[in-house]
Write a structure and sequence with these properties.
This protein is of the alpha+beta class and 261 residues long. The protein has helices spanning 13-21, 25-32, 89-94, 139-154, 171-186, 210-224, 251-260; strands at residues 57-58, 64-65, 73-77, 87-88, 101-110, 130-138, 161-165, 191-195, 230-238, 244-250. The chain has seven helices and ten strands.
Length: 261
């Protein structure tokens, strides 16, 4: 028996009847498919005018800028901090002075076209497309700000050193911690003296009186004040006898160390 050839373009009997009785079959068949109304409307919103081999341009603070912004449409923050209507990235880049200005992405928001779309239920992913929010910034000022941030990260006082104590600390342990505190301050580093950090068995420690706790706080502050340029860079937080933080620095030593660097 001769085999019947398979023709992939043949349609089923049901589709043949649909073509006979339903006009504009190709349109009707498209409409019968189940589609997410938001799925196809924003397909191209986040594919910017980048060319092959182009890498995203980023500032030192990690913000995307100029051609690195992966979107066809953006919203620009005006000089009065109001958002301008959506416009193309290509148009925005053409409207600024590329020699002296940068277009930097500072965030994102729901695209205005979909503001009236229903919000997702709690715990569900939001299908509404977002649009990048950008600012036009001066190149020179932007670079100066980046340099200052880079210097701050390298500064020895960028991160505070933590010295942990407890209200029932013994004389030997206290002397050791106070020496570390003074050494950090002499090096120009900020110090946080921490009391009452939660630990296993903390609630079983011996209760301390207010007089004892207050005297310990004063003793530590007086010890820190022995370092030249001492000051409290932030008000004390917490309660004596409970959880408490003290914030010290030695301003004169900080400046000396920055000069050496």
């Amino acid at each position: 028996m001769r085999a019947v050839a398979h023709f992939p373009y043949l349609i089923s009997p049901a589709e043949a009847l649909q073509r006979v009785f339903v006009p504009n079959w190709s349109i009707q068949r498209t409409c019968l498919r189940k589609r997410n109304p938001l799925r196809h409307q924003h397909r191209n919103l986040y594919h910017g005018p980048r060319t092959r081999g182009t890498t995203a341009e980023e500032s030192n603070d990690g913000r995307t800028r100029d051609e690195g912004i992966r979107a066809r449409e953006i919203q620009v923050v005006a000089s009065d901090n109001t958002l301008q209507p959506p416009t193309t990235l290509k148009y925005s880049l053409a409207s600024i002075d590329r020699q002296t200005q940068l277009l930097v992405q500072v965030g994102e928001k729901i695209h205005p076209r979909f503001d009236d779309a229903p919000a997702p239920e709690e715990g569900q992913r939001d299908p509404r497309p977002k649009i990048p929010v950008c600012k036009v910034v001066d190149k020179k000022s932007h670079r100066q700000a980046e340099v200052q941030k880079a210097k701050a990260k390298k500064s020895p006082s960028a991160l505070a050193k933590e010295v942990e104590c407890n209200w029932n600390i013994g004389p030997h342990d206290l002397d050791h911690r106070l020496k570390r505190m003074r050494d950090f301050l002499s090096e120009g580093k900020r110090v946080e003296v921490v009391f009452g950090k939660k630990r296993k068995g903390w609630t079983h420690r011996k209760e301390v009186t207010e007089d004892h706790a207050g005297g310990l706080v004063r003793f530590i502050r007086d010890n820190a004040a022995q370092v030249e340029g001492f000051k409290e860079w932030k008000d004390m937080e917490g309660k004596a006898g409970g959880e408490l933080r003290m914030y010290f620095e030695a301003k004169g030593n900080k400046q000396k160390n920055q000069t050496k660097d």
